[in-house]
Design brief:
386 residues; four-stranded antiparallel sheet; single chain; five-stranded antiparallel sheet; mainly beta
């Protein structure tokens, strides 16, 4: 990385011209030795980075090291806070907002493409989904809206048997989502069917591969749902409370993260288990970024890169929510507003960014950008393939 010039101040006095420490290499630690015996406030200000202001008591520590996060590559400030996590594809980001609004943004610039009031000021009840045919959004009144990608106008309204409780999943012309009554709605054409889940309550998000959906019930069962509404349980009886499931992008593998911290790997065609890999003993897997070789899984305060060939996991302590990855990289963000870009195989840090606002919702990937909704109405994007 090309070194960046920085302004360094101690108690308001600019040291940049005399300290010799006035340059820093991007994405590397910066160390400032202080010849002071009293508490001071150090300011480090560099173009493209978040300003760092930290009080230091030199009598307690002669040397203090801080990591300086970059500013996000893209940032937008919306008039209303997000009500659910954003959804995206390579050409559109949508953000459900409070007070019944929906905003569509360009992934590469985060410029607003449309901002609309939902019909009857209906509020979102679950995250949206972005498809080639439009934006799908579950809303109050037990409805599922399909909206135009260009201007947000309503193209179709599905009346659901109960309120939508998960992001919709799409296979061909069939849409499926979990309902708050414990069942599943399957929408095809103009028809809506209700599928009951035996011995449990369905909860999302659903994951899809080809003509099949996978979902988890609160009884720890994993179910395969076909477009026609057929429901089959995976052969293992239970995966524990809080289990999650995700198909690999190619649809050939189904991953199930269990309530006791293991990753089960299934052949998605034969529904046969091919591996059981312990990852977080005694801690539930809460999210999976699937991959054919190195899926990344999350537990509270930890991430792990799983090597499917050696059946081993590399675990790092990181209190951040995992966003979907792009190629060899993944992104994760936490309540502290820091966004981490990591190598998928090793989880080595490749970039650190700050939204300067708390991030409480899981992010999404829009092409080569990872996009997150933060507090204060902020939406930020970071480039993964830098």
């Amino acid at each position: 990385s090309v070194p960046s010039r920085a302004r360094i101040r101690v108690d308001g006095v600019d040291l940049s011209l005399s300290s010799g420490n006035a340059s820093l290499a991007a994405e590397t630690p910066f160390v400032l030795d202080l010849p002071h015996s009293k508490p001071v406030t150090v300011e480090l200000i560099a173009s493209g980075f978040v300003p760092l202001r930290v009080p230091i008591d030199a009598t307690e520590s002669a040397r203090v090291t801080r990591r300086l996060p970059r500013l996000p590559d893209r940032e937008a400030v919306l008039p209303l806070a997000a009500s659910f996590a954003p959804a995206a594809d390579a050409s559109l980001v949508v953000v459900p907002q409070e007070q019944g609004r929906l905003c569509g943004l360009s992934p590469s610039t985060l410029e607003t493409r449309f901002s609309i009031d939902l019909p009857d000021l209906a509020g979102a009840t679950a995250p949206p989904a972005v498809t080639q045919d439009g934006v799908l959004l579950p809303v109050t009144g037990s409805k599922l809206l399909r909206l135009d990608r260009t201007d947000g106008r309503v193209l179709h309204t599905y009346v659901l048997p109960a309120r939508g409780a998960s992001a919709p999943a799409v296979s061909g012309n069939t849409v499926a989502l979990a309902l708050d009554d414990g069942g599943i709605a399957v929408c095809a054409g103009a028809s809506v069917r209700h599928v009951a889940v035996d011995s449990g309550v369905a909860f999302g998000p659903l994951t899809v591969a080809g003509d099949r959906f996978a979902l988890v019930s609160n009884a720890g069962r994993v179910w395969i749902l076909t477009r026609g509404g057929g429901l089959t349980a995976l052969p293992d009886a239970t995966f524990g409370d809080g289990a999650v499931a995700a198909f690999a992008v190619d649809g050939a593998t189904l991953f199930v993260g269990t309530g006791d911290g293991a990753l089960f790997v299934f052949d998605a065609t034969r529904l046969e288990k091919t591996a059981t890999i312990p990852v977080f003993p005694g801690r539930a897997v809460t999210a999976i970024a699937p991959d054919r070789g190195f899926p990344v899984v999350e537990s509270q305060g930890r991430l792990a890169a799983v090597d499917l060939e050696t059946k081993t996991a590399r675990v790092v302590e990181l209190d951040a929510r995992l966003a979907a990855g792009s190629g060899s990289r993944v992104a994760a963000a936490g309540a502290d507003g820091l966004i981490h870009v990591l190598d998928r195989r090793s989880l080595e840090p490749l970039g650190l960014f700050s939204a300067d606002a708390s991030i409480q919702m899981r992010g999404t990937c829009a092409g080569s950008f990872a996009v997150f909704s933060a507090a204060k109405g902020k939406v930020v994007g970071v480039l993964l393939d830098r």
